[in-house]
Amino acid sequence: CEDCGKSLIGECKLHGPLIRAKDRVIPSRARLTLPHYLTLRVLELRAGNQQILGVFAKKVIQKRTQFGPYVGQLSTKLTRYDESRLVLQVLKDGGKYFLDTPDEDCGNWMMFVRLARNQEEQTLVAYQHCGEVYFTTVKPIEPHTELKVWYAADYAKFMEASAVSIKEESDVCPLPPVAKEPVDPWICSSCRSTFATFALLESHQCIHKDRV
């Protein structure tokens, strides 16, 4: 203790504990690659603090906007499967490989894009070009809209999947129904305003971020 000049095991009983300063948390590689007009939102928090994330637009994104390429590790087998994300493969040197993304430090933001459950909510199409996978918008994307992807027709054949997702919502990571919104109000951590639904809170928080 610099105040009483004693070497102590643990806290100084006279002057108390030290004020601990924590290092700044550094975002992962995948999060740092997110374009400035996109944002990540936590849609669900599962056991073990596992976050289910979605990618949302902060401003209007024009049709035929291309993103990519998807950054992942080539693998002969899929080591990590997430039912809410697309399984991606590429053809390189005559071989068919999975684009595997084991963690956020090895990929880019495209790993967070969730698959579209039907044609209505699909905003992106995934396809292969020169051994890489790209996502392109199939329609204008309005602010606060989630980016969701499905295979292009030719790529769907390559992946042995249907060209348009026809899976039922119960089969692919369904979102909580509106009827199950919690009774307690949602509170903004910045200004402490309360909102009846999570959707209203999300829109309000986007205004905060835009002002910053």
Automatic annotation (TrEMBL):
Tell me what gene encodes this.
Prdm15_0
Q: Report the source organism.
A: Oceanodroma tethys
Positions in coiled-coil regions? none
Where does the C2H2-type domain lie? Answer: 186-212
Arranged from A to Z, the UniProt key words for this protein are: Metal-binding, Transcription, Transcription regulation, Zinc, Zinc-finger
UniProt name for this protein: PRD15 protein
- Keyword match Transcription: yes
> Its GO CC terms?
nucleus
State the InterPro entries in the record.
SET_dom (IPR001214), SET_dom_sf (IPR046341), Zinc_finger (IPR050331), Znf_C2H2_type (IPR013087)
Q: List the PANTHER family.
A: PLAG1 LIKE ZINC FINGER 1, PR DOMAIN ZINC FINGER PROTEIN
Give the highest taxon in the source lineage.
Answer: Eukaryota
